[in-house]
Amino acid sequence: MTLPATSAFPYSLVATDLDGTLLRPDDTISARTREALAAVTAAGAAHIVVTGRAAPWTRHILDDLGYDGLAVCAQGGQVYHAGERRLLTSVTLDRQLAGLAIAKIEAEVGPLHLAASRDGLEGAVVVAPGYRVHEGPLPNVLVDNPADLWAEPINKVYIQHPELSDDALAAAAREVAGDLVGVIMAGPGIVELLPLGLSKATGLSLAARRLGVKAAGTIAFGDMPNDVPMFGWAAYGVAMANAHDELKAVADEITTSNEDDGIAVVLERLLAG
């Protein structure tokens, strides 16, 4: 399908999550979605990626897209300039607070398995014994000593429990440590501890200010509970068919799944007026 490059488009900013949203299950972006995004930018809107992934885990996708603008990474903790290949902002998680939060969570639910995302453009994800790493191309560093997780500044901690579901673990962590850290579920098997008050909405608002666009002109796409703040900030939130029920509950619209070009379906309709 060929989309008209000059179609009127009602939003000045299109914010898309990556995993489960822009990316298909095989971590690729369809030709149809690429074309829809290209038509949107040709019509004068900006496209911005807003992802839970830290910048080192996001850059290869942006490079594949030919994306040279701003991206919000690390759940809002990083604003990355893809064209200049540099971080414009980076927020770190206080390691003492993180340790205290983990101690409180473990006192409630028992031992956790841990990993941590180190700060910086080359920051590795460091994985302690027992943590289940998701299969795929994303790099990580295995360590034998859990103390190595705290050896360098970090932007988030990943927690897993041997028995609790993601929802139950996130709820328990929020209950006992929500006054110390932010707790979000970013995907299957991915519960994260963040700097308190940080969200995709805070990072997106910073990036939007740099682009000269406002929340009132933003449409956002997502699939997980960590996208709820972004939907609250944007004028219009679109959840994928494969989205978590918590996000669907606050969405303005539910589109088809990430495997079925859900982003393109909505953008093509808006471009057609």
Task: Report on this structure.
Helix 2 packs parallel to helix 9 (262-271) and helix 4 (95-109) crosses helix 5. Helix content is 30%, strand content 23%. The radius of gyration is 18 Å and the shape is globular. Mean pLDDT is 93; it is low at 1-7. The longest helix is centred in the middle third of the chain and has 15 residues, at 95-109. It has helices spanning 18-22, 31-42, 59-65, 95-109, 166-177, 200-211, 228-233, 245-248, 262-271, and strands at 13-16, 46-50, 70-73, 78-81, 86-90, 113-118, 125-127, 141-142, 154-160, 181-187, 190-195, 218-222, 236-239, 253-254. It has 273 residues and is of the alpha/beta class. An eight-stranded mixed β-sheet has the order 5-4-3-2-1-12-13-14. A hairpin with a 4-residue loop joins strand 3 (70-73) and strand 4.
SSE run = EHHEHEEEHEEEEHEEHEHEHEH
In terms of structural class, how would the helical and strand content be classed?
alpha/beta
How many beta-strand elements? Answer: 14
| Number of DSSP helical runs | 9
Low-confidence stretches: 1-7
Distance between the termini: 16 Å
Arithmetic mean of pLDDT: 93
Q: Which strands sit side by side, in order, in the main sheet? A: 5-4-3-2-1-12-13-14
Q: How much strand content do the residues show? A: 15-25%
* Broad shape: globular
How can the largest sheet be summarized?
8 strands, mixed
Percent range for helical residues? 25-40%
**Rounded Rg:** 18 Å
